[in-house]
Design a protein that fits this description.
The complex is a heterodimer of chains A (361) and B (331). Chain A has a domain at 65-194 and 204-307. Chain A contains 16 helices and no strands. Chain A has helices at residues 8-34, 38-50, 53-78, 86-103, 109-138, 142-164, 187-193, 206-223, 225-235, 237-242, 247-263, 265-274, 285-295, 300-323, 331-345, 351-354. The longest helix of chain A has 30 residues, at 109-138. Chain B is mostly helical. Chain B has a single domain, classed as ABC transporter involved in vitamin B12 uptake, BtuC (Orthogonal Bundle). The chains are: A mainly alpha (361), B mainly alpha (331).
Chain lengths: 361, 331
Amino acid sequence: MTETRLPRWAGLVALPIVNILAALLLSGLLVAAIGADPWQALLVLLRGAFGYQEAIGFTLYYTTNFIFTGLAVAVAYHCGLFNIGGEGQATLGGLGVGLVCLYADALPFYLVLPLALIASTAFGAAWAVVPGILQARRGSHVVITTIMFNFIASTLMVYLLTHVLIRPGQMSPESREFLPHTFLPFAHQALAWLGIPFARSPLNLSFFLALLASVFVWGFVWHTRWGYELRVVGANPQAALYAGISPQRNIVLAMAISGALAGLLGVNEIMGVNHRLLLNFTAGYGFVGIAVSLMGRSHPVGIVLSSLLFGALYQGGAELAFEVPRVSREIVVVIQGLVILFAGALEFLFLPLLRPFVKAA
Amino acid sequence: MEALTYFALLLDATLRVSAPLVLAALAGLFSERAGVFDISLEGKMLVGAFAAGVAAHYAGSMWVGLGAAILVSVAFGLLHGFACITHRGNQIVSGLAINILAAGLTILLGVTFFRQGGRTPQLPTEARFTPITLPGAEALKDVPVLGALWSELISGHNILVYFAYAAVPLAAFVLYRTRFGLRLRAVGENPEAVDTAGLSVEGLRYQAVIICGVLCGIAGAYLSIAQSAGFIKDMTAGKGFIALAALIFGKWKPVPTLLACLLFGFLEATAARIQGAFDLTGASDAVRRAAEALPFVIEALPYILVVLLLAGFVGTATAPKAGGIPYVKER
């Protein structure tokens, strides 16, 4: 997609903004068509996302999930791979966290936490490494295999939660609640220890984990030899081969890191918020991670910013559905779809608009 | 005899469950053989099902519903084409966007129109495709084997089921025995050659995504106004992806794809039936656990089979060579 060499400001800032505006404009028209006032809807959405402490908490809680899945897509992307198995990898990551919290809860929190982190990354990585190996060794396309692995993961989870991990004597497919000492502290609790009052929200300490992961990805991809090799394979596998870099090894490595990052979503959802294993906690975050990564130009800074955008859309959209009854919650899903369409598939649609401002193309 | 009846019922269910898979897989076949990968079969089926449910409700006619399903599904196909063919966008990203858009729009609009939590109103029988009794089915009912086969298995489906299975030889004929089919396949293998021959790569690919849209629309209409009496949110429930899996498992060829659809349909029909079908009194714990897990294994089997196929453990599948790559006429 490098048909034109754009100046940095145009490719990194102007084009994504124009694309988002197009998606929002179309969403606004849709809201108007449904019979609500789009301007009022936008205000409600913004207030719902940032207007008060609880709203900010919710926005950042969603942001956490998007950072994990966005980074996961980005790392694979730098190696020239399209990992659309974030849903499955996050599901497995959550399973890993859940198993630790269910069966290692005799341990104190400072041991449960590292175990949960290891389990979530290991389970997520394992679920991504298999498609990675199949791509590297047998040439099976990672896009198709990761889609299939999403479905296998979801079937596996339904089986486990209906027959193995379900709390006895209960109808709904959920495990028992974890012991309270294994919960990851909420932000309002942590802030209370510091003497700062903050409204209750699902925001928990995994938000910092997400920021740490972003720093890790930045350091790994751009400042280590491994990251360099990974990018070379992504840019030109042939050149990598001649430079003595193994494309196979890097494909597997990239998928492992990608899956591990997606798996960390389980820490936020299972250990931080739900405190039990349940179905569908990935709720499409894995797919939206693709949009997040696209918009963030596969760079951690961009990913954190676009995660914040999607987090605000999620929370603001929920608020919108609550305040404006004509608009249902699925408006958020529609906006996501439009953002992916404009920022991803139709990335250069509005390039002609920018032409007058771009000197030499 | 009882086992035979059970088996006949199972096959009957297989034909019904497989029909939308066949339609969607053929849709994918046309698109992907022309070099446009399409993971949005699911989304197009969903919007088709929704449009059919809405239109059939307002017009009171299943034919209007079918037409609406085709129109809307083709519109989304053209969107995919606009993004991937005209603007050379990433085909996977575009497909993903369409799937997400379809999931959101159908519920959003469904709630706006009917306020029933995303479903469309229950359709009366005359606004649905209902089972057809084929000629002679009643008369031949008592003839052993063949007569029973005709009246129980072949007869008594709705017209879209027959269309789905008739579409397979039709698709094979179009793809392998017509000039259009040759060009369509060529554009998926070597677009430069087609371009050099003076044909429009973009034009051919657009025709392919339109055919894909038509078939996905029919598959969607089958779900909402033939199999059920109205649209329910997320009613495709992954069928578009199973169809995609069948297409790959069928190695992008019409007849093997049909067989893959029948296999996957059979697995689905079986999984639905064996849950709690075994008498497990006195069975050991391990047997009981295995029996519990069996339906889930069967449910996941299509996906596992595709992974094994792609890994080269059960034959090889070669995708159309130019699939997924946008065509740039001049560099």
